[in-house]
């Protein structure tokens, strides 16, 4: 049984072109899918539709084979489907990292002591314990992204939806993110333009073609030429 | 942008239960606000001073805050004595300053400073986020607390947004002059700041929903009423009793 599915979904923003048209898609909790496509083709919109933050023009969302439409039902879905949005700045709204990580668990009904423990566990698991008491608005861009991911992981979702997680990450932080993902037991859909990253983290691929979601079983790999701008400090090819 | 210069000390005042500190500051400032004699106000001022000394505030920010309060008081000194009726204390040219007016302004000066010092000692000694959580623990409605905490956080975001746009303007060699072009540009800047803030508020709301937010206020802060808090309560009550027996 798929964890969630879209049935004949159509969607357009007000005064915008139709982004999705009568498209269907089913996702199983163990899948690891890379999602690519040009800017503005509806990848982020797809995530917002799945989590109920946007309502489709027609069609419906299923969660464990039940059609859901109410906010309360989507709240149950969001416990298991963790969406990390593109802009990390908007996702950290507490003063300190620890408080921010505890926000989700507190909303799930954990006591303050349990939520604090969960937050600390998550940080330790991701090797980010050193950021525990830092102020969120003083973190670097890369740290903000990792903490935004951690704040979703603190809710222990079954699957992750990541929207361009490698944007503005330097090689060190990207490697760290890769490490974190490799140790997770969850499935995921990752939106990215970074094909190397998708190849290393995903086993299946999908795209949007002609306003429809399309799966493709393999990624077309090709050789490309690239420059090493710092000639005396080349990066390694793994 | 906003610093919290008094919030991070390690005196025993800082260690008191935040709820108790807010309660004491509230009750005592109510009592002082309705005081009618110099003696009452002086009593309050001395008590507030003692508490403030115990909280060991950094001197420079303290003087800056008191200066801010007393600039307002200065305006009262300039206007009230000249406008209050009553027998004149002295004349300044054709203006006469009434004795009753001088009395009143001195009373206001004492009260304003006493209440400011009290709040610096009791409330400014905790971070704003902690203050919000304590208010919620004191059964203030969650909506008010949200409003307070988000306003505080949003001010930083708004300032960031403004800075970014301002930088963009400077990169385009914009210099503000008294011309239509300048006014139009600055108007756009204000408009854009607001528009972007609305967008950002929407995204923050989405992020909150994604983490299971359902409109209820949650907090990690736990407040504990200790023996020390008990002693402080007794001392505060005794002071209140003394005040009411003396005056």
Question: Would you mind describing this structure in some detail?
Answer:
The complex is a heterodimer of chains A (238) and B (247). Helices cover 32% and strands 24% of the residues of chain A. Chain A is globular. Chain A contains 7 helices and 10 strands. Chain A has a single domain (4-216), classed as Rossmann fold, CATH 3.40.50. Chain A has helices at residues 43-50, 71-80, 97-107, 112-125, 141-153, 171-183, 195-201; strands at residues 4-12, 18-27, 32-36, 58-63, 66-68, 81-84, 159-163, 187-191, 204-209, 212-216. In chain A, a hairpin with a 2-residue loop joins strand 9 (204-209) and strand 10 (212-216). In chain B, strands 1-2 form a two-stranded antiparallel ribbon. Chain B has 9 helices and 2 strands; from the N terminus they run ααααββααααα. The longest helix of chain B is centred in the C-terminal third of the chain and has 31 residues, at 180-210. The A-B interface holds A 48, 51, 53, 75, 78-79, 82-83, 85, 87, 90-91, 93-95, 98-99, 102-104, 106-108, 112-113, 115-116, 137, 151-152, 155 and B 127, 129, 150, 153, 156, 200, 203-204, 206-214, 216, 218-222.
């Amino acid at each position: 049984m798929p964890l969630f599915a879209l049935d004949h979904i159509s969607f357009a923003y007000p005064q915008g072109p139709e982004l999705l048209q009568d498209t269907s898609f089913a996702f199983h909790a163990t899948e690891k899918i890379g999602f690519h496509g040009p800017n503005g083709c509806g990848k982020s919109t797809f995530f917002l539709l799945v989590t109920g933050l946007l309502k489709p023009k027609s069609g419906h969302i299923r969660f464990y084979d039940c059609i859901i439409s109410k906010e309360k039902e989507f709240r149950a879905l969001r416990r298991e489907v963790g969406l990390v949005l593109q802009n990390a700045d908007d996702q950290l709204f507490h003063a300190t990292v620890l408080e921010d990580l505890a926000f989700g668990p507190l909303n799930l009904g954990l006591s303050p002591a349990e939520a604090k423990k969960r937050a600390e566990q998550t940080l330790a698991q991701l090797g980010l314990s050193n950021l525990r008491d830092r102020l969120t608005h003083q973190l670097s861009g890369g740290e903000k992204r990792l903490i935004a991911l951690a704040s979703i992981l603190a809710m222990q979702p079954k699957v992750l939806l990541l929207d361009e997680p490698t944007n503005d990450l330097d090689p060190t932080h990207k490697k760290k993110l890769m490490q974190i993902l490799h140790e997770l037991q969850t499935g995921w859909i990752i939106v990215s333009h970074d094909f190397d990253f998708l190849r290393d983290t995903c086993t299946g691929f999908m795209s949007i073609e002609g306003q429809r979601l399309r799966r493709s079983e393999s990624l077309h790999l090709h050789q490309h030429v690239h420059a090493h701008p710092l000639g005396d400090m080349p990066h390694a090819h793994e | 942008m906003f610093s919290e210069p008094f919030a991070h000390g390690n005196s025993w005042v800082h260690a008191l239960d935040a709820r108790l500190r807010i309660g004491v500051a509230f009750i005592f400032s109510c009592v002082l606000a309705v005081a009618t004699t110099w003696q009452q106000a002086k009593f309050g001022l001395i008590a507030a001073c003692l508490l403030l000394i115990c909280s060991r505030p950094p001197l420079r920010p303290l003087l800056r805050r008191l200066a801010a309060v007393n600039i307002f008081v200065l305006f009262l000194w300039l206007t009230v004595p000249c406008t209050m009726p009553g027998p004149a204390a002295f004349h300044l040219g054709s203006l006469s300053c009434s004795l009753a007016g001088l009395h009143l302004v001195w009373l206001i000066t004492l009260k304003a400073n006493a209440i400011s010092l009290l709040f610096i000692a009791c409330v400014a000694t905790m971070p704003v986020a902690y203050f919000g959580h304590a208010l919620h623990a004191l059964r203030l409605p969650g909506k008010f607390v949200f409003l307070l905490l988000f306003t505080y956080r949003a001010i930083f975001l708004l300032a960031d947004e403004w800075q970014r746009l301002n930088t963009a303007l400077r990169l385009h060699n914009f210099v503000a002059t008294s011309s239509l072009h300048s006014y139009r540009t600055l108007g756009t800047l204000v408009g854009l700041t607001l528009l972007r803030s609305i967008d950002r508020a929407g995204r923050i709301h989405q992020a909150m929903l994604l983490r299971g937010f359902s409109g209820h206020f949650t907090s990690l802060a736990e407040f504990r009423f200790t023996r020390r808090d008990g002693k402080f309560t007794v001392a505060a009550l005794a002071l209140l009793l003394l005040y009411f027996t003396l005056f």
